[in-house]
UniProtKB/TrEMBL annotation:
Keywords: Activator, DNA-binding, Transcription, Transcription regulation. PANTHER family: HCA OPERON TRANSCRIPTIONAL ACTIVATOR HCAR (PTHR30346:SF0), TRANSCRIPTIONAL DUAL REGULATOR HCAR-RELATED (PTHR30346). Pfam families: HTH_1, LysR_substrate. It comes from the Bacteria. Belongs to the LysR transcriptional regulatory family. This is LysR family transcriptional regulator. The keyword Transcription regulation applies.
Length: 319
């Protein structure tokens, strides 16, 4: 069905005259008549009865009118669903409880006019980049080592530096510490079951542990995160590492303690990844917002892996 003809029909009904409908649509009165005649021919009915007083809706025209209005509303929604700046911005936050999800929620609060579709692909860096390149998502967040080969269409920018905290129970020897240094982690059992054995996350924690002389225990069955929190609450020799922006909930009786790690503060560097030719204007606003939230601490106060201490040559946006 010709939507221009349907639009002309509705305009003629609302205006009351073909001449006024023509002026509203910026076409000739003859074009209005032709469009409506074509619509009537396609439907096999008369929509208007021509009288000396002008065109009046027939019974068929009255029956068709609400459906014509709905057709135009559906067409408008379909157009908005894909038009840059009007369609929903689809962003992969990797996991629901980590800092990326928290920042996206804050972005939504400060930019309520931007519609978001927040998803979790649970994909590694290569798969996430492939999803961005294919247009499955508009943006994602991962650490991007310099060895990572980026497709020509992909842009990245380092926008999140998340500090780490030590999470312990009330009977742990470090439970009452105001802060700990990375060196103080040596000799303590740091449990992180399910930690990847390869990829950018594995590389980060492997270098972190090796640099400061502690061991991360990744063995054993992987249950829900709540199971680890339950273990930590009852143990005097068990701890884990969590991101400062990670949100976990636990019963008050657990009395878990989040202790900042400082001197230096280890930070996990994450980049926003998007297609450079993606015209959605909300991508610019999202990146600007994340840049405004990023803390730029002096280099001698933070620790980042060696691959994050320089800008990757394949990155197409400044970090």
């Amino acid at each position: 069905m010709d939507l221009d003809a349907v639009r002309t029909f509705v305009a003629a009904v609302d205006a009351g005259q073909f001449q006024e409908a023509a002026a509203e649509l910026a076409i000739t009165q003859q074009a209005v008549s032709k469009r409506i005649a074509s619509l009537e021919k396609g439907l096999g009915v008369r929509l208007f009865a021509r009288t000396a007083r002008g065109a009046q809706l027939t019974i068929e025209g009255q029956a068709f009118l609400p459906h014509a209005r709905e057709l135009l509303r559906v067409a408008e929604r379909a157009d908005a669903s894909v038009r840059p700046g009007r369609r929903v911005l689809r962003v992969d936050v990797v996991a629901r409880r980590v800092v990326t999800s928290v920042l996206l929620q804050d972005f939504h609060r400060t930019h309520p006019g931007i519609e978001l579709d927040v998803v979790t692909l649970e994909a590694d860096l290569d798969a996430a980049i492939a999803a961005v390149e294919a247009g499955t998502i508009d943006a994602t967040f991962h650490a991007v080592p310099p060895r990572q080969r980026l497709p020509r269409a992909i842009s990245t920018a380092r926008v999140i530096d998340e500090p780490h905290q030590l999470l312990v129970g009330p009977r742990h020897p470090l439970a009452n510490a105001g802060a700990v240094t990375p060196r103080q982690l040596a000799g303590h059992r740091i449990r992180m079951p399910g930690l990847p054995v390869r990829g950018e996350v594995a590389d980060y924690y492997a270098e972190f542990a090796a640099t400061f002389g502690f061991t991360i225990d990744i063995l054993g069955p992987v249950f829900a995160k709540e199971a680890l929190l339950d273990e930590i609450a009852d143990a005097s020799d068990l701890a884990t590492l969590v991101g400062e922006g990670t949100r976990y909930l636990w019963p008050d009786r657990y009395d878990l303690r989040r202790i900042p790690v400082r001197h230096p503060t280890p930070v996990y560097p994450m980049s926003m990844i998007w297609r450079g030719d993606n015209p959605h204007p909300a991508l610019v606003e999202l990146r600007a917002y994340l840049e405004s939230r990023r803390a730029h601490a002096p280099a001698d106060e933070v620790w980042v892996p060696t691959w994050a201490q320089r800008v990757p040559p394949t990155t197409r946006a400044s970090s």
